[in-house]
Amino acid sequence: MRNIGLLFIFLAALAQAQVTLSLDQLDFGDVLTTTDKELAVNVTNTSSAAVVIDEVTVYNTDFTYAVPNATIAAGGTEKVRVTFKPRHNVAYNSELIFVLNNGSQFRIDLIGNGKYEGTYYSSTFNKSYQDLKDELKTILADGYTNLGYSGARDKMYGDIDNVAGKVTCVYTGREATFNTRSGANSVSFNCEHTWPQSLFNQNEPERADIHHLFPTDNNANSRRGSYPFGEVTGTPSWTEGGSKLGGSTFEPRDQQKGATARAMLYFAIRYQDYSNFIDGQEAILKQWHMDNQPSAWDVQRNEKIFGYQKNRNPFVDHPEFIERINKIGATDTKPLIKEANTAQTAIDYGVVRNNERKNIYIVNTGNTDWSGVSAATTSAAKLKIVSSSSSAAAGEALLVVVDFLGLPNGDYTDNLIVNLNDEAGKIITIPLAFSVGTAGLEDIDKNKVHVAYNAISQKILFTKLPEDAVQVEVWNSSGQQILLNDISSVLTDIPFHGHRQGLYFVVVKTKSEAYTAKILVY
Fold first, then answer.
1. CA-to-CA separations, 424 to 318, 454, 515, in angstroms, rounded
2. CB 397 within 8 A of CB 95
3. Global pTM?
4. How far apart are CA 450 and CA 462, in angstroms?
């Protein structure tokens, strides 16, 4: 009786299926944050059997991918399409790792520069933390026009916050008709300093900077006083229009929370954290800022203020700036971020051959370069480490090449171990499983069995079988049996719903022999 091991011999020859890439790097160049750009890599199957792109991982969400056809026929070419839509004006460096259904990993390096439209923020390119805060401070002061407190209120009441003759209290929603300072007084309106002016001794230009000034009802302004912002818990001592006062905390109504937060963030960057006022509020202000993105009104107000003061609120223009700043009030030292990621937490190669090599990538997803990485090792010495990188820049991938040299046929497990020497604060361990087979295909009589797959009915079709066939087995390309059917000499079609696209192997057994055929499920 022909041993079922012939199936694994057959699988072994097909498991070597490899691909070549037309490019190993996609350089997107400069891309505006208001647009996107797509590039593609041709993936060519150089083997005699179909392969399937099983998993794709990209390590930065500003890059997205599409694989129009994951199954690549023998000798065929398919594309991996990557779209770059940057959110930040920074230099991007990331990786795309895709994995075939035989466990083989392939890498595409992704680089590009996000750019903002216009030149106002061009000097902030690739800056973060204190460097970004310092640069924004310079930009916001450059060419600034101080209107004076009276002039600022004139512009607010007469234009910036005036809609068809009416002005609205940002805290209560109360509307009143006026367009001058005297008109505001006559209807019990005044000017709210989001950053209390008592904390900076009513100094100019702080007192007159419209980016943190808003029209308010006199009583609401008085209730707010110089209290910090936050969420009021329990029963408030005062509430009107959605705004609340409780204890020593003032909570603006929901419609104003985002604008209040951005006014506070702006003030601390433009001037300083007077009396450390923002420290206890910073977390909730950031949350309000992110949860309440700038409205059309916020954008229009920013434009009008720019027309008078000649400076802008950067957190209205680019809310994402806050993602590159950890501390608004205090000195913002760049944090050391140590992170490592793998495309597969465990790898099952299925059937491999001796002398077959596989690449394994470990991606540096932190913000510091790796150096002095220890050579990779294995726990059971069942596979050979051909080479391993000793360094990887931030955004790049460390490469480990393994080989199955000198192993007898059989099933094996091992662990790949990479010591990053605390570069990412840990040792990377990847469990590996594989089977070794080295014989050829010359003994398999493929003329005795004719098998096909019908994609419409999702059935395995038999058009020719040995008369004494008694059993059918279906195996995937990783050497796992997924179907067993007992049959008579007349076999009907076998339903094959719900299985992945890819290459499968059908073994038809008689009482004395076994015959193997392959099908492509698509």
1. 31, 49, 51
2. yes
3. 0.80
4. 6
Contact 103, 52 (CB under 8 A): no
Measured between alpha carbons, how far is 399 from 403 in angstroms, rounded to an integer? 13
Give the per-residue pLDDT at 488: 53
Using DSSP's 3-state secondary structure scheme, residue 313 falls into coil
Strand partners, 359: 401
Is the CB of residue 20 less than 8 Å from the CB of residue 105?
Answer: no
Rounded Cα distance, 61 and 437, in Å: 40
How many other CB atoms are found less than 10 A from the CB of residue 138? 11
pLDDT band with cut points at 50, 70 and 90 for residue 319: very high
CATH class of segment(s) 446-521: mainly beta
Give the tens place of pLDDT for each residue, 102-137.
889 999 999 999 999 999 999 999 999 999 999 999
β-bridge partners, 147: none
Residue found under tokens 């839509």 = 85
* CA count, 13 A, side-chain hemisphere, 164: 1
CA 323 – CA 128 distance, rounded (Å): 9
| Interatomic CA distance for residues 387 and 88, integer angstroms | 36
Q: How far is Cα 199 from Cα 212, in angstroms, rounded to an integer?
A: 14
Pairing of strands 347-352, 427-436: parallel
Q: Is 412 exposed, middle or buried (0-12, 13-18, 19+ CB in 10 A)?
A: middle
Supply 201's token pair: 């001794």
List % helix, strand, coil for the chain (3-state, nearest 5).
25, 35, 40
Question: What's the token pair of residue 233?
Answer: 């818990």
**Topology match between the domains 5-115+337-436 and 446-521:** yes
**Range 5-115+337-436 classified under CATH 2.60.40.10:** yes
- With CA atoms as reference, report the closest residue to 136 among 301, 324, 286, 296: 324
CB 117 within 8 A of CB 82: no
| Model confidence pLDDT, tens digit, residues 31-68 | 999 999 999 999 999 887 788 999 999 999 999 999 99
Q: Residue 188's CB: how many other CB atoms inside 10 A?
A: 15
Mean pLDDT (the chain) is 89
User: What pLDDT was estimated at residue 450?
Assistant: 72
Per-domain residue ranges of the chain: 5-115+337-436, 129-324, 446-521
pLDDT at 20: 94
| Rounded-to-integer distance, Cα 307 and Cα 310, Å | 6
